[in-house]
Amino acid sequence: MTIINSHLYKKCKKFMTKPDSIIFDMDGTLWDAVDTYAGSWNIVFKELNIDRTIPREELAKMVGWEGKKVLEAIMPDYDEETRQSIYTRVNEVRRELLPKNGGMLYDGVKDGLEQLAGKYQLFIVSNCAKGIIRLFMDWAGINEHIIDEIAYGINYMPKNHNIKMLIERHNLQNPVYVGDTDGDAEQSRLAGIPFVFVSYGFGETDNHDLRFDSFTDFTEYFMKLV
Predict the structure, then answer these.
(1) Cβ of 17: how many Cβ atoms within 10 Å?
(2) Rounded CA gap, 218 and 90, in Å?
(3) Quick one: which of 47, 88, 135, 184 is 20 to 30 A from 96 by CA?
(4) What are phi and psi of 209, to 5 degrees?
(5) CA-wise closest residue to 206 among 180, 182, 173
(6) What 3-state class would DSSP assign to 89?
(7) Measured in whole angstroms, how far is the alpha carbon of residue 95 from the centre of its chain?
(8) Do residues 10 and 115 make contact, with C-beta atoms less than 8 angstroms apart?
(9) What are phi and psi of 199, to 5 degrees?
(10) Distance between CA 170 and CA 148 in Å, rounded?
(11) pLDDT in tens, 159-176
(12) Cα torsion angle, 75, 81, 85, 88, sign
């Protein structure tokens, strides 16, 4: 199902006709790895004898947040230095778990990316730690379709900054950003590019130019654009 925000139609008519590139969010847009992410936290808490367990439901609400905000929510009673130390260990464990446990690739993503790569330049920008995007790409077998990626953990900058970095680095003329949260929408606006919302992820928003209920619908729509 495709929904176009009518009041934004004129503003984004050009992008709906001929974008040259697609920048994807990762978690909630391309896959769901919340179980593995929660597992990495819980392993570290056990290692450190911290009486804390993070269930999937709690962590899922934080998907897409910048790292600092996540740490404040998960460890409100710790100072910033301690939080960062624990988070460093969490990401070490996460990098060990992801190649083995992976996550759930959403229906249509692998085939869709293969099709889209023949028509668009494809990128990923995510609020994750350094190296996680590449581990996802390796696990999913999509390396050949993704031209470049930037994670929050590379420079600790918000998505709009990293989206702009990709635009400048690759001289993109008409990119769009695809994500699953209102935060993704806000960052797209700050970056000055249209936002495509996928409703099957972790969030909800009305602040979109296009909305799709499956990755297959998304792929079909963009493959038909001329």
Answers:
(1) 10
(2) 34
(3) 184
(4) -95, -35
(5) 182
(6) helix
(7) 17
(8) no
(9) -85, -10
(10) 9
(11) 999 999 999 999 999 999
(12) positive
Beta bridge partners of 32: 104
Q: Which of 180, 193, 211 is nearest to 26 (CA)?
A: 180
Q: In residues, how long is the chain?
A: 226
Q: What is the pLDDT of residues 22-72, one digit of tens each?
A: 999 999 999 999 999 999 999 999 999 999 999 999 999 998 788 888 999
> Residue type for 116, please?
L
- Pull the structure tokens for residue 49: 């004898």
Nearest Cα neighbor of 192 from 29, 11, 4, 26 is 11
Q: Distance between CA atoms of 114 and 182, rounded to whole angstroms? A: 27
Q: pLDDT-derived band of residue 11, with 50, 70 and 90 as boundaries? A: very low
| 171: alpha, beta or left? (left if phi > 0; alpha if psi -120 to 50) | left
Location of structure tokens 């400048």: 168
Which two structure tokens, joined as six digits, stand for 214?
């499956």
Backbone φ, ψ for residue 41 (5° rounding): -60, -45
List C-alpha distances in Å: 141 to 38, 114, 133. 23, 10, 12
Output DSSP code: residue 108: T
Residues 6+ apart with CB under 8 A from 218: 108, 112, 178, 196, 198, 212
